[in-house]
Design a protein that fits this description.
Length: 115
């Protein structure tokens, strides 16, 4: 099943020909500052399955050196209610920075830092 998503105004759109290989929450202070929220929710997809279908994005997705061959998509940009990541979080990163009013996601691996 493919994932599709876009920016708020719709000028940028993308798709992945496969579902997320990993779903993750990140509680690091960089993600908190970047989004203005307490954490980011992310879908990790294979780079070979990912394509931009409209526009020229600058910051709509992320590539990390520690995860070669993958694209990290912020779940909030996913279409059709997919931002809930099918109610399945595989891992939470930077749990040391998780805000005190949040609990661990049930069944998710808890990482003090990244990996």
């Amino acid at each position: 099943m493919a994932l599709t998503g876009s920016c708020m105004c719709g000028a940028i759109a993308y798709k992945s020909d496969s579902d997320a290989a990993v779903t993750a929450l990140c509680h690091c202070v960089d993600c908190q500052k970047w989004t203005g929220g307490a954490f980011t929710s992310n879908a990790v997809v294979a780079e070979n399955d990912f394509s931009v279908t409209k526009g020229s994005p600058k910051h709509l997705y992320t590539r990390l050196d520690v995860m070669p061959g993958n694209i990290i998509i912020k779940a909030g940009g996913l279409d059709n209610g997919k931002a809930n990541l099918n109610n399945k979080i595989d891992v939470e990163f930077y749990c040391r920075d998780r805000v005190s009013y949040l609990q661990a996601a049930e069944g998710a691996k808890q990482e003090h830092l990244f990996g």
